[in-house]
Structures are given as structure tokens and as C-alpha cells.
């Protein structure tokens, strides 16, 4: 019954639109839009969209209409690109024109009206806050300073797996790694880990994270049909968004107040809140308010707690389905690193097959299959097609990683393809862009890669992995959950045997 009123409103407005549609269009400007499926007046192409797997839906459309296609979601023009050549055009050649963000309702609210580094529109403030983040929070040097935390949390995971292995119990890697990621990112950002017996339980932490992600990917009428934006109130979307915003705001407020407590013992190492509060105090030119700090924490909280887990789970999924690749990468790791139960330091760049496994996982399973949407600032052309200001631009990293124009046997997991290749995943080779590229490349790239390398290397070095009794490798699915990150739908459960 709740959906009846929104549908009735859309139907009525569509009829009104058709009735009022001007019959004489001779004087209207003519634009050469990219090809795409024909939409319905007022609604556009929203009725086509599969919100559970939009990257797959768009890739299927690209097979019909070509690597650049146009759609319309309500009143918003949308363009999606599906080739390395076009990705380079958007992310590098015309980066300055495509580096802004659309003012979507959920992004605006949860980012404190664009005070963060990921969803802020491109302007002087965004450039400054990104500079602060890259220089002070997420530089290679800063990521290295967080190494002891990563190592301690990985050691905890290894001990848990050893315990399960000794008891001949199945290891739910998806669940175990989500716990690692939450504790790791919380210690880096907030200086504390969350367990089931502490103030904010791990289950509550994940519940809050999941709801925030759900809001980021939710449909709001206000974004695409401003004239009926009131329906977001009727359907309860606004109240749901406001509820999770207040929960997260209270969470940030509590942690910041804890850091500001003059009686709190000084920590042995700075976390991200410590750094931000120090910058706020000693660098007034930055003009950091508590809302700025909360917005940055949101980026780290939502993005940082997910992406590393996603990549390790997909790497282990592919390796368990391809035992020959599993054997090769384990042999390389064990020959290079001996006489240790837990890898803490290693020059992972020297491990060629291990790096190839990571790249192949990034290619097939980018954590964010659609890069965060960009917005065209000015009118321009791509491949001769007109792109208007305000157009929402999607770069389909998932489709580009599977494009037969760039890859031989693109659907096949084959790390060997990278052994003699110089292709990097750090934004300079557009066939492989799991972290994006250009001015809006993921600022957490170094941190994400460091987490994936350390966790994956330890899992492969310390244990041999098998499928549970009665399960065949063909039974391991690759279905995904809807959301920002491409989580495996069904948890990866394996048997670990101590090496």
C-alpha cells in the first residue's frame, strides 16, 4: 500500500507531462547524445535499471549500444562508459570537467553537506581537504606508521584460524575478515577496537555500517524528480536517512569528546582523530570544524571498513576455484619467507606471482564496480557526442576489467597474464582502474593495498586451504550483494590446515 501513492503520483505526472509536452520543437536546440535505450517521458530509463547489479545491467546495455551510452533517470541525464579509451577521456584528458560530484541526497546528508573528501563537489574547499587527507592522513609514510596495528590485527586472525583448524572446524573467512577490517580501521581512525563486550558492540558497528551503505545506494525521488521529492517523506526514506545520520553523528561525537578529554592518558601512537584535532588546533588556516572532522571520519568509516575485506575474500574465492594458481602463489610466498608463523614485513613488490594474483583479483572483482559517480561541469564532447552540464557520469570499472578489447579470455582467472605486463592498478593504466584515476582517485589507495597484501600473504603462507567435505569448487558462487562495495553474497567458508 505504501508504494501505491508514489506510483500513482508518477503515473499522474507522466500523463500531465505528455499533455503539456510542446508540439512544436523546431526552435529547440538539437544535441547529439550518445546512443541508449529509449526511455519513458518523465521517468526516463529508471524502469529498466537493476539496482541490485547496476554494473552488470549497464555492461549488458553496452553490448547493444556501444562503450558509451546515455540514459535518463527522471530529469537527470546519465552517461556510462565501458572502455579503457573512454575511461581515459573522462578520468584524464577531460578530468577537470568531470571531477565534480552530483549533489545526491544521501551523499549530501551523510557527508555534512559535502565537507568530506569523497563526495564534495569540485571546488577550492575540496582541493584543500583532499590535500590535508593525502598529506597528513593517508600518505605512504602515514600508512607505514599504522603497520604495527595491521600486524597485531592480522596476528589475531591467524590465531583464530589456528584454533579453528586445530578443532577441525570450518573457517568463515568472510565473517572473520570483516571483524579484522572493523578492528583495524577503528584502531587507525579512532584508537580503539570494538568487541562484543565493549560499549559499542561489533554487531552494532556492522549494523550502522550496513545501514549507511544502504542509504548511499538507496533511490530518493528528490534526486531525480524534484517536483515529487515530498514522496521521500511519505515513504519514510528521509526519516530513515536522518536516523542513521544521527546515529553516526553521535558515534563520532562520543569518540571526538573522548579524544578531547584532558584526563585521558596519552596514546603511544596518533590515530586519525588525534591528527585532525592537532591540525585544527595548530593550523587555524585549515579552518577545520568538528563537522569537517566527522565528514572525513565518515569516508574512512564507510570505505575503509569494506574494501580490503572484499578484495581478500574474492582473491581466496578465485584461488580455491583454481588450485594450480593457489599452489603457485603459496610456493612463491613460502620460498621467499621462511621460519615465521606470521608475516609482518615483506617487500611484496618482489613477489611477482603474488602481485599478479592481486592484479587479477582487482581486474575481475573491483571493490567498487562502478566508480563513484562524477558530474559534468561544462558542456563538452566525448567521441563526438554532446555531454551537457549536470550530466551524471559513471565509469564501469567492472566492465572495463572484462572488456575483450583489452583482455584475452577476459572472464578467466589467469594471474599469468600480468607476469610479463607493466600494467598498474594505481590510476595510470585505464584497463585496470579499481581505485579510479585522476583528481578523484581513491585517496585511501595506499592503505587499502597495504591491508590486502598483509592479510592475503599471511592466509596463503601459514595455511593450506580446502573446501568443506561434500563441497566442489563448482559449487562456490560468485554472486554479489547490492551496495557500494562488491561483497560476495554467500560467505566463503573453507577448511584451514596449518602449513
From TrEMBL:
It is a single-pass membrane protein. Keywords: Heme, Iron, Membrane, Metal-binding, Monooxygenase, Oxidoreductase, Transmembrane, Transmembrane helix. Pfam families: p450. SUPFAM superfamilies: Cytochrome P450. One of its GO terms (cellular component) is membrane. One of its GO terms (molecular function) is oxidoreductase activity, acting on paired donors, with incorporation or reduction of molecular oxygen. Its main location: membrane. It is found in: Membrane. The keyword ATP-binding does not apply. InterPro entries: Cyt_P450 (IPR001128), Cyt_P450_CS (IPR017972), Cyt_P450_E_grp-I (IPR002401), Cyt_P450_sf (IPR036396). Transmembrane segments: none annotated. Heme binds at residue 442. The keyword ATP-binding does not apply. CDD domains: CYP71-like. Its cofactor is heme. Belongs to the cytochrome P450 family. This is Cytochrome P450. It comes from Chenopodium quinoa (Quinoa).
Amino acid at each position: 500500500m505504501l508504494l501505491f501513492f508514489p506510483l500513482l503520483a508518477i503515473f499522474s505526472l507522466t500523463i500531465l507531462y505528455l499533455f503539456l509536452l510542446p508540439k512544436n520543437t523546431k526552435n529547440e536546440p538539437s544535441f547529439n547524445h550518445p546512443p541508449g535505450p529509449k526511455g519513458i517521458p518523465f521517468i526516463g530509463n529508471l524502469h529498466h535499471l537493476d539496482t541490485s547489479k547496476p554494473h552488470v545491467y549497464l555492461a549488458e546495455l553496452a553490448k547493444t549500444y556501444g562503450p558509451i551510452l546515455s540514459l535518463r533517470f527522471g530529469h537527470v541525464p546519465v552517461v556510462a562508459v565501458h572502455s579503457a579509451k573512454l575511461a581515459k577521456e573522462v578520468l584524464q584528458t577531460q578530468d577537470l570537467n568531470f571531477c565534480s560530484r552530483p549533489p545526491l541526497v544521501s551523499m549530501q546528508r551523510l557527508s555534512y553537506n559535502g565537507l568530506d573528501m569523497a563526495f564534495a563537489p569540485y571546488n577550492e574547499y575540496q582541493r584543500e581537504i583532499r590535500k590535508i587527507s593525502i598529506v597528513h592522513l593517508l600518505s605512504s609514510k602515514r600508512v607505514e606508521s599504522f603497520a604495527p596495528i595491521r600486524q597485531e590485527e592480522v596476528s589475531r586472525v591467524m590465531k583464530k584460524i589456528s584454533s579453528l583448524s586445530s578443532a577441525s572446524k570450518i573457517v568463515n573467512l568472510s565473517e572473520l575478515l570483516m571483524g579484522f577490517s572493523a578492528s583495524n580501521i577503528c584502531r587507525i581512525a579512532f584508537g580503539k577496537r570494538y568487541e562484543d563486550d565493549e560499549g559499542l558492540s561489533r554487531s552494532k558497528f556492522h549494523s550502522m555500517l550496513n545501514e549507511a551503505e544502504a542509504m548511499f545506494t538507496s533511490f530518493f525521488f528528490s534526486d531525480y524528480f524534484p517536483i515529487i521529492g515530498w514522496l521521500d517523506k511519505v515513504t519514510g526514506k528521509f526519516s530513515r536517512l536522518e536516523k542513521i545520520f544521527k546515529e553516526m553523528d553521535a558515534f563520532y561525537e562520543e569518540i571526538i569528546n573522548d579524544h578531547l578529554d584532558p584526563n585521558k592518558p596519552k596514546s603511544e601512537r596518533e590515530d586519525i582523530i588525534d591528527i585532525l584535532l592537532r591540525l585544527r588546533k595548530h593550523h587555524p588556516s585549515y579552518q577545520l570544524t568538528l563537522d569537517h572532522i566527522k565528514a572525513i571520519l565518515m569516508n574512512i568509516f564507510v570505505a575503509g571498513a569494506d574494501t580490503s575485506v572484499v578484495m581478500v575474500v574474492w582473491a581466496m574465492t578465485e584461488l580455491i576455484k583454481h588450485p594450480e594458481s593457489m599452489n603457485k602463489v603459496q610456493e612463491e610466498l613460502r620460498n621467499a619467507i621462511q621460519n615465521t608463523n606470521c608475516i609482518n614485513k615483506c617487500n611484496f613488490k618482489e613477489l611477482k606471482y603474488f602481485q599478479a594474483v592481486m592484479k587479477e583479483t582487482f581486474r575481475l572483482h573491483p571493490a567498487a564496480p562502478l566508480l563513484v559517480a562524477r558530474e559534468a561541469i561544462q558542456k563538452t564532447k566525448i567521441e563526438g557526442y554532446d555531454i551537457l552540464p549536470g550530466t551524471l557520469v559513471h565509469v564501469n570499472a567492472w566492465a572495463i576489467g572484462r572488456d575483450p578489447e583489452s583482455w584475452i579470455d577476459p572472464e578467466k582467472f589467469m594471474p599469468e597474464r600480468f607476469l610479463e605486463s607493466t600494467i598498474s592498478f594505481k590510476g595510470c593504466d585505464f584497463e585496470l582502474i579499481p581505485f579510479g584515476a585522476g583528481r578523484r582517485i581513491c585517496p585511501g589507495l595506499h592503505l587499502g593495498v597495504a591491508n590486502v597484501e598483509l592479510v592475503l600473504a599471511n592466509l596463503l603462507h601459514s595455511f593450506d586451504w580446502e573446501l568443506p567435505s561434500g563441497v566442489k569448487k563448482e559449487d562456490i558462487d560468485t554472486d554479489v550483494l547490492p551496495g557500494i562495495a562488491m561483497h560476495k553474497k554467500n560467505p566463503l567458508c573453507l577448511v584451514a590446515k596449518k602449513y
